[in-house]
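agent: user wants the structure for Dirigent protein from Punica granatum. delegating to structure tool.
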Amino acid sequence: MAKVASVHILPSTFLVFSLLFSSGFLASEAGEEETHDVFGRTLDPKLMGLKKEKLSHFRFYWHDIVSGKNPSSIEVIHSPVKNSSLLLGFGLTHIYDNRLTMGPDISSKLVGRGQGLFAQAAQDEMALLMAQNFVFLEGKYNGSTITVLGRNPILATVRELPIVGGSGVFRFASGYVQARTYSFDLNTLDATVEYNVYVLHH
Ligand SMILES: *[C@@H]1O[C@H](CO)[C@@H](O)[C@H](O)[C@H]1NC(C)=O
Ligand SMILES: *[C@@H]1O[C@H](CO)[C@@H](O)[C@H](O)[C@H]1NC(C)=O
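agent: tool returned. relaying tokens verbatim.
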């Protein structure tokens, strides 16, 4: 390598190098063996097949089912704090795999799942830390995911949470979601929430 680098770099040599580098890049994208002498470099987004960024909107309903024989949301950490003025105790944590449906009725068309966790992370108000992946099941979005991480003060009319990334068609995703409670059963604690997703992706 050192010997090659010391000779004059002719335009044709440069071309060969570019070809080597781009084929090395393709090899790594294809999961094949690659050379181990480059740690980081700038890439042309076109080489990644990236098209112009676009904005997509999705609307669906998220069903947090706590009650019954087949809950989709389960308490995994119990709160040790007793504060009867709060619905959920400080520290209470759920893991969930909730249905995402087209309409507010849970039996309407399934378009994806919301998989994640929420924890009551405020001591004197209702505000959850939510970390969840939306995995879509529809058409060209099937198998692609959007990751949302944020604060959810569940009693507010509209809550906004940031989109922190995505996979598949949502690679390089950014944006936000708006959550609005559609129904909430105070006895069972089952909830249906309308989500509007505004996502920038390529
Ligand atoms: C219980 O919650 C209320 C607000 O709803 C707050 O004012 C109070 O400090 C809390 N008490 C404890 C012990 O955390
Ligand atoms: C989504 O992908 C899964 C697995 O690849 C497949 O079984 C399923 O039929 C697909 N669904 C739709 C609606 O294309």
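agent: one observation worth passing along. Residues 1-27 have pLDDT under 50 and may be disordered.
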